[in-house]
Amino acid sequence: MIRAEDFWDGTAERYAARKIADPAAYDATLERVAAYLRPEDRVLELGCGPGTTPIRLAPLVARYEATDISGALLTIARGRAREAGVDNLTFRQARLGDDFGAGVYDAVLAFNLLHLAADPAAGLRAMARSLRPGGHVITKSACLKDGQGWLRPVLWVMQRLGKAPDVRFLSCVELDALHEAAGLRIVETGWYSRKLGARFVVARKPE
The domain containing residue 15 runs over which residues? Predict the structure, then answer.
């Protein structure tokens, strides 16, 4: 199976050119995220892709750090951030589960990432560790086990051809449990969008 870095580097230009599948759901997601951000916050986003989300959210906070596993996607993201004139946004190559320090951030975000992670439980533990007490982990993930199990054989074939990344099949119950197992308390959930099985979770680190 192709390595995650190689897959995303190879598809970076095509992925960055894709239109957002459900713009209304995307806007609703960012509206809910914004409700948890303050002007003085320091934010970390994992799996930022071509930079669409950090460019939208960075103006709401003091400092925004965005990471991705793909150097090619980060090159695109940096270019887009320069064009947008967002000056409090930095990018670096990293993966879910890396050590970003303890209690550093006010919010840690990961969108469309946990179901692509080799170990989402370890990833959420690392996210929680990097969060200050009282801060929020905010994620949106595909719950493919809930009604989309038919994708398994399709993905299996595509993965063998190098046309799809590794994917975890999680249910919404399992996804919520992973957040709680990382020592977080869920304060909000939603579906943005329900059709795509994209579950939004906001979880708070106890003080």
Answer: 4-204
Q: What's the total number of domains in the chain?
A: 1
CATH of the domain at 180: 3.40.50.150
Residues of the chain short of pLDDT 70, as ranges, are 1, 147-165, 196
pTM of the model: 0.91
- In contact, 183 and 130? CB cutoff 8 Å: no
Cβ 78 vs Cβ 91: under 8 Å: yes
133 Cβ partners below 8 Å, 6+ apart? 103, 205, 206, 207
At 123-169, the pLDDT tens digits run 999 999 999 999 999 999 998 887 665 566 555 555 566 665 677 78
> Using CA atoms, how far apart are residues 106 and 90, in angstroms rounded to an integer?
16
As a whole number of angstroms, the distance between CA 90 and CA 102 comes to 19
CA separation for the pair 117, 55 (Å, rounded): 23
* Whole-number Å distance between alpha carbons of 46 and 127: 9
List, in sequence order, every beta strand (DSSP E) within 47-155.
Answer: 63-68, 89-93, 105-111, 131-142
**Spatial contact of 165 and 159, defined as CB atoms under 8 Å apart:** yes
